[in-house]
Amino acid sequence: MMNKIYLTLGFCLIGLSIAFLFSWLNNNQQEISISVTEAPNTYTLSAFYPKGQTENVKRYLDNCLKPASIFRNSRELDQEITLSDQTRFYIKASEGRLYLKLDKSINSGNSIRRIKAICEGINFKGS
């Protein structure tokens, strides 16, 4: 009878350990996936990155887009942005995720080059 209790407790502890391990691995995922697509009329950046780098990415974007502050202390963003120089783009951002789409047909050459340079300069690793 005592052996069954110890055996059951042992299996429970192993099961809990495995569950905690998978949970920890899922929350500390360090994979980075970046996709840049350029078509005649659009430029698109789609990125998945470690959630811990979200604040660095947001700070970088706000710094590059000054005087605009697109995040304004929000955790998520899903909107069309128009900057003071009339650069227009769509951005969707949340923890560990960034999607940016620029319509080339409505933006100047300078605006297109600026947004491309900003996207190329993002450091998703945070180092």
TrEMBL record:
Protein name: Uncharacterized protein
